[in-house]
Design brief:
Length: 375
């Protein structure tokens, strides 16, 4: 059994209406997209149980399309509602083609309380405050990424608006502890969320699994199970088989994250690959390094990740040749985009090497940490 798949513009009102029809089965499955004309190789039909397809970059940069059922989306929404102590009114402050934005719309539909949409022309503190003023329910929620929260905490009016939310969900990337502490000091109630398109959105709140979500660590990797899991990757059975596995009647999703669980609380310790999330955008350190090494005299440069107070993480270049941060940022941004531009350049006498002759990346990362006063 199949159903039609429609690629639609990621306009909040349009996505909300199409999502309601997709979940009920009265309309086609949808793939919200910021530029529908650029979506290629999209099938006309998908399996009947698929309601939403979310397009996102893979850890290698190869795009993937996550196929999600109505049951999974609604299970995630129900779990979130219980974890938050009941229904409320949501503000959509994230793009409607991201799973976090779609999850907000699903929660609003499940609660049968109309959401408020932030001006889609761009996120600013002023637009956030204006949208918050449209909320009319006593219980209010919003989902943000750390960089949005950081910008809002710099504005008195926005801080006042944030205090009116019963809970501010923050996810999409690692959040600096200093940012969380600052929000707490200003009286903003935040919850750190962890999840992905493959889990229909956040399924771990402040390290604790919600609903029937289960968490385990296998070979250092975080794995998740529960009714919120996606069906797999559309048109990519090989990738689906690698990421999703059935064990004794249970289905598990193997993430690219490393972590540990202590007393039932999950802590993410890093990524199993070289991809970081900077400002909500996935950035391949290998790709950045390739561009940097293509610059004259920087053939031996190494790129590692470092914590950033605003973006969560960012690339840092370690080089034996004196080069300015502006030079590197300009070249990388031109080829890979602004999110990939290194935020620092650390000059060393000699890049540490392993006996194999490869860069000793652990030592390089320690040098970066020491140069920034983090050691």
């Amino acid at each position: 059994m199949t159903r039609p798949l429609e690629v639609i513009p990621a306009e909040p009102h349009r996505v909300a209406a199409a999502l309601e029809a997709a979940l009920s089965g009265s309309g086609p499955a949808i793939l919200p997209h910021p530029d529908p004309s650029s979506a290629v190789d999209v099938p006309e039909l998908v399996p009947q149980k698929v309601a939403v397809v979310v397009e996102t970059s893979g850890s290698t940069g190869r795009p993937k399309r996550v196929a999600i059922s109505p049951d999974a989306l609604l299970a995630n929404a129900a779990a979130s509602e219980v974890a938050l102590g009941g229904p409320g009114q949501w503000m959509l402050a994230l793009p409607a083609h991201y799973i976090a934005g779609i999850a907000v719309l699903v929660r609003a539909l499940a609660a049968q309380i109309a959401p408020v949409f932030l001006d889609p022309s761009g996120f600013t503190a002023e637009r956030f405050v204006a949208a918050a003023g449209e909320l009319d329910h006593p219980r209010r929620f919003v989902s943000l990424v750390p960089v949005q929260l950081s910008r809002l905490l710099d504005t008195d009016d926005a801080v006042h608006a944030l205090r009116g939310f019963e809970r501010v969900l923050v996810g999409g990337q690692s959040m600096p502890s200093a940012l969380a502490a600052r929000a707490d000091e200003l009286g903003v109630s935040i919850t750190r969320t962890y999840g992905s398109s493959e889990t229909s959105g956040g399924c771990v709140y402040d390290g604790v699994a919600i609903g029937d979500t289960r968490v385990r660590i296998s070979d250092g990797r975080v794995e998740l199970a529960g009714s919120m899991l996606a069906e797999g990757y559309l048109g990519d059975p090989e990738r689906t088989e690698l990421a999703f596995r059935d064990e004794h009647g249970d289905r598990w999703f193997r993430t690219d994250d490393t972590g540990e669980v202590v007393d039932g609380v999950l802590t993410i310790t890093g990524r199993a690959d070289d991809v970081i999330v900077s400002g909500g955008v996935k950035v391949s350190l290998a790709a950045v390094e390739a561009v940097v090494r293509g610059m004259p005299g920087l053939e031996q440069a190494v790129v590692v990740a470092a914590p950033h107070p605003v973006w969560g993480e960012s690339p840092v270049v370690v080089s034996e040749l004196a080069v300015t941060r502006e030079e590197v940022r300009s070249v990388v941004a031109e080829q890979l985009g602004a999110a990939a531009a290194p935020t620092e350049v650390v000059i060393v006498d000699r890049v540490p090497l392993l006996p194999s002759g490869k860069p000793d990346r652990l030592t390089v990362a320690a040098l970066v940490s020491g140069s920034r006063g983090d050691a």
